Amino acid sequence: MDVAPLSTPETTGGRHHWPGRARAWVPVPLALAAVTLTAACTGPYGATSSAATPTAAGGTAAVVATASTGLGTVLVNGNGRTVYEFAKDTENTSTCDGGCASIWPPVIAPETLPTSLPGVSGQLGSTTRNDGTRQLTIAGHPVYAYSGDDAAGDTHGQGLDLNGGVWHAVSPAGSPVTGNGSPSSTTY
User: Fold this and answer.
1) By the 8 A CB rule, do 152 and 107 touch?
2) How would DSSP label each residue in 112-175?
3) Could you list the pLDDT tens digit for every one of the 188 residues in the chain?
4) Cα–Cα dist 60/79, whole Å
5) Signed CA dihedral, 36, 48, 105, 167: sign only
6) Of 23, 85, 114, 131, which one has the fewest beta carbons inside 10 Å?
7) With contact defined as beta carbons under 8 Å apart, do 175 and 183 qualify?
Protein backbone atom coordinates (compact mmCIF):
# COMPACT_ATOMS: atom_id res chain seq x y z
CA MET A 1 0.00 0.00 0.00
CA ASP A 2 1.42 3.35 -1.04
CA VAL A 3 1.01 6.16 1.43
CA ALA A 4 1.67 9.75 0.41
CA PRO A 5 4.24 11.38 2.62
CA LEU A 6 3.09 14.15 4.88
CA SER A 7 4.07 17.51 3.55
CA THR A 8 4.41 20.92 5.02
CA PRO A 9 2.96 24.05 3.53
CA GLU A 10 5.10 26.23 1.32
CA THR A 11 4.99 29.94 1.94
CA THR A 12 4.69 32.17 -1.11
CA GLY A 13 3.92 35.86 -0.75
CA GLY A 14 2.83 35.39 2.86
CA ARG A 15 0.30 32.68 1.96
CA HIS A 16 0.55 29.00 2.79
CA HIS A 17 0.04 26.50 -0.01
CA TRP A 18 0.02 22.74 0.27
CA PRO A 19 2.06 21.23 -2.53
CA GLY A 20 0.27 18.63 -4.62
CA ARG A 21 -3.18 19.50 -3.32
CA ALA A 22 -5.84 21.37 -5.20
CA ARG A 23 -7.94 23.82 -3.27
CA ALA A 24 -11.31 22.47 -2.33
CA TRP A 25 -14.28 24.66 -3.24
CA VAL A 26 -16.54 25.12 -0.30
CA PRO A 27 -20.20 24.96 -1.45
CA VAL A 28 -21.59 26.89 1.53
CA PRO A 29 -22.38 30.09 -0.43
CA LEU A 30 -24.21 28.03 -3.06
CA ALA A 31 -26.18 26.10 -0.43
CA LEU A 32 -27.09 29.35 1.34
CA ALA A 33 -28.30 30.84 -1.95
CA ALA A 34 -30.46 27.77 -2.62
CA VAL A 35 -32.07 27.98 0.83
CA THR A 36 -32.72 31.72 0.37
CA LEU A 37 -34.26 31.16 -3.07
CA THR A 38 -36.45 28.35 -1.76
CA ALA A 39 -37.71 30.57 1.07
CA ALA A 40 -38.44 33.39 -1.37
CA CYS A 41 -40.40 31.09 -3.67
CA THR A 42 -42.58 29.70 -0.89
CA GLY A 43 -43.67 33.07 0.49
CA PRO A 44 -47.12 33.86 1.78
CA TYR A 45 -48.90 32.03 -1.03
CA GLY A 46 -46.59 29.03 -1.26
CA ALA A 47 -47.11 25.52 -0.03
CA THR A 48 -45.17 26.00 3.20
CA SER A 49 -47.54 28.49 4.82
CA SER A 50 -47.84 27.86 8.54
CA ALA A 51 -51.29 29.46 8.67
CA ALA A 52 -54.14 27.10 9.39
CA THR A 53 -56.38 26.50 6.40
CA PRO A 54 -59.96 27.56 7.14
CA THR A 55 -62.39 24.68 6.86
CA ALA A 56 -66.03 24.55 5.91
CA ALA A 57 -68.65 22.45 7.63
CA GLY A 58 -67.79 18.82 6.99
CA GLY A 59 -64.02 19.42 7.23
CA THR A 60 -63.32 20.29 3.58
CA ALA A 61 -61.07 23.24 2.70
CA ALA A 62 -63.07 26.47 2.47
CA VAL A 63 -62.87 28.85 -0.47
CA VAL A 64 -63.21 31.74 1.97
CA ALA A 65 -63.90 32.00 5.68
CA THR A 66 -64.25 34.74 8.25
CA ALA A 67 -61.49 35.99 10.53
CA SER A 68 -61.20 38.67 13.17
CA THR A 69 -58.65 41.40 12.33
CA GLY A 70 -57.93 44.95 13.40
CA LEU A 71 -60.58 45.98 10.86
CA GLY A 72 -63.20 43.72 12.43
CA THR A 73 -64.47 40.49 10.87
CA VAL A 74 -63.32 40.11 7.26
CA LEU A 75 -63.11 37.35 4.69
CA VAL A 76 -59.89 35.37 4.29
CA ASN A 77 -58.80 32.94 1.58
CA GLY A 78 -57.90 29.26 2.04
CA ASN A 79 -54.46 30.27 3.39
CA GLY A 80 -55.98 32.59 5.98
CA ARG A 81 -54.96 35.74 4.04
CA THR A 82 -57.26 38.77 4.00
CA VAL A 83 -59.45 39.03 0.90
CA TYR A 84 -59.76 42.40 -0.90
CA GLU A 85 -61.87 43.91 -3.64
CA PHE A 86 -60.80 46.56 -6.14
CA ALA A 87 -62.94 49.70 -6.55
CA LYS A 88 -62.00 49.89 -10.25
CA ASP A 89 -63.60 46.49 -10.99
CA THR A 90 -67.10 46.45 -12.36
CA GLU A 91 -69.62 43.88 -11.18
CA ASN A 92 -68.41 40.39 -12.05
CA THR A 93 -65.50 41.78 -14.14
CA SER A 94 -61.88 41.97 -13.01
CA THR A 95 -59.74 44.84 -14.31
CA CYS A 96 -56.59 43.71 -12.46
CA ASP A 97 -54.33 41.85 -14.91
CA GLY A 98 -50.58 41.56 -15.58
CA GLY A 99 -48.46 43.41 -13.02
CA CYS A 100 -51.54 44.27 -10.98
CA ALA A 101 -52.40 40.56 -10.60
CA SER A 102 -48.84 39.80 -9.44
CA ILE A 103 -49.33 42.25 -6.54
CA TRP A 104 -52.99 41.34 -6.00
CA PRO A 105 -53.31 37.61 -6.81
CA PRO A 106 -56.92 36.70 -7.65
CA VAL A 107 -58.68 34.21 -5.40
CA ILE A 108 -59.30 31.29 -7.75
CA ALA A 109 -62.80 29.83 -7.78
CA PRO A 110 -63.06 26.07 -7.24
CA GLU A 111 -64.67 23.86 -9.89
CA THR A 112 -67.77 23.51 -7.75
CA LEU A 113 -68.78 26.52 -5.67
CA PRO A 114 -70.32 25.78 -2.29
CA THR A 115 -73.86 27.10 -1.92
CA SER A 116 -72.99 28.63 1.44
CA LEU A 117 -70.16 28.85 3.96
CA PRO A 118 -70.40 29.36 7.73
CA GLY A 119 -70.38 33.08 8.60
CA VAL A 120 -70.31 34.20 4.94
CA SER A 121 -73.58 35.89 3.93
CA GLY A 122 -72.40 37.34 0.58
CA GLN A 123 -73.36 35.27 -2.46
CA LEU A 124 -70.45 33.26 -3.87
CA GLY A 125 -69.92 33.27 -7.62
CA SER A 126 -67.19 33.32 -10.23
CA THR A 127 -66.06 35.28 -13.25
CA THR A 128 -63.74 34.33 -16.09
CA ARG A 129 -60.57 36.43 -16.19
CA ASN A 130 -58.81 37.59 -19.38
CA ASP A 131 -56.30 34.72 -18.98
CA GLY A 132 -59.15 32.17 -18.85
CA THR A 133 -58.94 31.34 -15.13
CA ARG A 134 -62.05 31.46 -12.95
CA GLN A 135 -61.91 34.04 -10.16
CA LEU A 136 -64.10 33.94 -7.08
CA THR A 137 -66.66 36.71 -6.62
CA ILE A 138 -68.44 37.68 -3.41
CA ALA A 139 -71.72 39.57 -3.85
CA GLY A 140 -70.72 40.10 -7.48
CA HIS A 141 -67.26 41.56 -6.76
CA PRO A 142 -64.04 39.77 -7.86
CA VAL A 143 -61.77 39.16 -4.85
CA TYR A 144 -58.00 39.11 -4.39
CA ALA A 145 -55.27 38.53 -1.81
CA TYR A 146 -52.43 41.06 -1.33
CA SER A 147 -48.79 40.09 -1.76
CA GLY A 148 -47.80 42.64 0.91
CA ASP A 149 -49.64 40.73 3.65
CA ASP A 150 -46.95 38.65 5.34
CA ALA A 151 -49.13 36.54 7.63
CA ALA A 152 -52.70 35.49 8.27
CA GLY A 153 -54.62 38.40 9.77
CA ASP A 154 -52.50 41.11 8.09
CA THR A 155 -54.48 43.88 6.40
CA HIS A 156 -51.66 45.90 4.79
CA GLY A 157 -53.64 46.29 1.56
CA GLN A 158 -56.53 48.08 3.27
CA GLY A 159 -57.25 51.50 1.72
CA LEU A 160 -54.29 51.41 -0.68
CA ASP A 161 -54.80 53.45 -3.85
CA LEU A 162 -52.87 51.34 -6.36
CA ASN A 163 -53.37 50.32 -9.98
CA GLY A 164 -55.93 53.06 -10.58
CA GLY A 165 -58.29 52.35 -7.68
CA VAL A 166 -58.68 51.82 -3.96
CA TRP A 167 -58.49 48.37 -2.35
CA HIS A 168 -60.63 47.35 0.62
CA ALA A 169 -60.93 44.23 2.74
CA VAL A 170 -64.21 42.40 2.20
CA SER A 171 -66.87 41.93 4.88
CA PRO A 172 -68.72 38.60 5.25
CA ALA A 173 -71.62 40.18 3.32
CA GLY A 174 -69.29 41.01 0.41
CA SER A 175 -69.16 44.77 1.08
CA PRO A 176 -65.92 46.75 1.17
CA VAL A 177 -64.72 47.47 4.72
CA THR A 178 -63.62 51.02 5.51
CA GLY A 179 -60.56 51.81 7.63
CA ASN A 180 -62.58 51.89 10.86
CA GLY A 181 -64.01 48.41 10.32
CA SER A 182 -67.52 49.26 9.12
CA PRO A 183 -68.75 48.31 5.65
CA SER A 184 -68.37 51.07 3.07
CA SER A 185 -71.41 52.41 1.28
CA THR A 186 -69.47 52.75 -1.98
CA THR A 187 -71.45 51.48 -4.96
CA TYR A 188 -69.92 50.07 -8.11
Assistant:
1) no
2) S--S-BTTB-SPEEEEE-TTS-EEEEETTEE-B--TT--STT--TTTT-EETTEEEEEB-TTSP
3) 555 555 555 655 555 555 555 544 444 343 333 333 333 333 333 322 223 444 444 444 568 999 999 999 999 999 999 999 999 999 899 999 999 999 999 999 999 999 889 999 999 999 999 999 999 999 999 999 999 999 999 999 999 999 999 999 999 999 999 865 444 433 33
4) 13
5) negative
6) 23
7) yes
Strand 64-69, strand 72-77: pairing? antiparallel
Half-sphere exposure for 179 (CA within 13 Å, toward CB): 5
Residues 6+ apart with CB under 8 A from 174: 121, 122, 123, 138, 139, 140, 141
Residue type, 181: G
